[in-house]
Amino acid sequence: MGFVNEFAAWAHTSYTEGLSASIRSDATWRALDLLGNSLAAVNSEPARIAHAVARSWGDGSEATAIGSNVRYPAAAAAFVNGTLGHALDFDDTHLPSIVHPSASVVPAALAAAEASGAIGAQALDAMAIGVELAVRLGMAGYDVERNVSVFFERGYHATSICGAIGASVAAALLAGLDADGVASAAGIASSMGAGILEANRTGGTVKRVHCGWAAHVGVSAASLARHGLTGPPTVFEGRFGLVSSHCGDGMDAGVTVAELGTRWHSDHIAFKPYPCNVFTHAIIDAAVALRADGVRAEDIRAIEVGGAEAALRTIAHPAEEKARPESGYHAAFSAPYTVASALIGGEGLGLSHGDFESGRLAEGLRMDLAAKVSCVVDETCDRLFPAQLPAVVRVTMTDGRVHEHRVDASRGSPANPLSEEELLTKFRGNLAFGNREKDTDVITGLVLDLASAHGVAGLLAALGGPGDTAGGALEAGGATGSESRA
Predict the structure, then answer these.
(1) Which domain covers residue 224, as residue numbers?
(2) Does pTM top 0.85 for this prediction?
(3) 166, 336, 418, 482: most buried, per Cβ within 10 A?
């Protein structure tokens, strides 16, 4: 039996028997977080593009696009919703694989659950199982000796590759496939999941649809398997399988099935407190702490950011471009911009969507501070990364004094988790940014009660609000709000 069949057999049994209340609770909070991120992005440029493309694929009534009353075929709805979930870089992160699993798996599960009429508990169980496979695949590409994600080192976006396969398992379970069908869906998705990370370094907005495409792949792969297409039984561990082809020889595909049912790798998923690249988070934490200690941005002469070498390749280089990002989206991948913004004082839990609006890029003090930042490799950070996402910030004041703050585990990570109240604060902020603040209590209640719901259609209808709130505005070119971050 290949690893994919072994995982599929466990997944099918677990789904049929039902998961524990604690696992369902965890999936519920991940769904709440993902839906908040999605509602914040409904008026963004990626949302407009995703809706336009989904419309061009044809009409359908299987599943709902989040934040609207527009319905598409399930795979198209998953594409729109996965794009929304990842568009503002506010989605959760597994450590140390650096996979953002929920933005691919949850949209696929919601679309498949709505199309099949599954109850809320089944949707949550499928989400949890799909997320677990996504992060296990990410861990199969993690080199313990070198302490690096090989996917990442080779320029692959493990989130969209592994997320597509996790999404396929969630969708296959909700479609009622047996264990062999679930295995085939995963094997099919393994030929379809894709993504490279060059846009993180040098620009382009393609990464913002990576999770949309992964969710689309997941639902499509499940449909293909339902109609009889099959995948290879050694798709994870084979010579030309996923792990070998993407990460090379010597990697352990056995992680995908080790300790199934007794160990959940998804226990190590972090919630993001800030809507920007996760490698910047400990930097922001340190800057927030320095500001709380009385450091005034106006009195800073120089700023040194220390981090892990692998992280700095994404957020510190090319140095000139990172110091003067060309858009709010690029600013979200900039160590100089994020540390400067946090030292000035940002919104939400420290920084939030408004801090990445393009108008902020023209602010004199913010840009002056960003120009004063130098980024260096820190030995301690290198040792801790990527099991943790650490950073150290040192500021030299105009009077010569030096202040330093080191963060070994970024806020929101399993070692420094957000409280439920902080998650709700983030959720409320997301809905306010998406102009849905008045609906917060209703939506929160529906999500948190999902385990006992008769289905997901009522929740998705509530997310749409009165009328065709997103679809019509976007079709008419009326995108607002986070559009400026494109």
Answers:
(1) 3-270
(2) yes
(3) 166
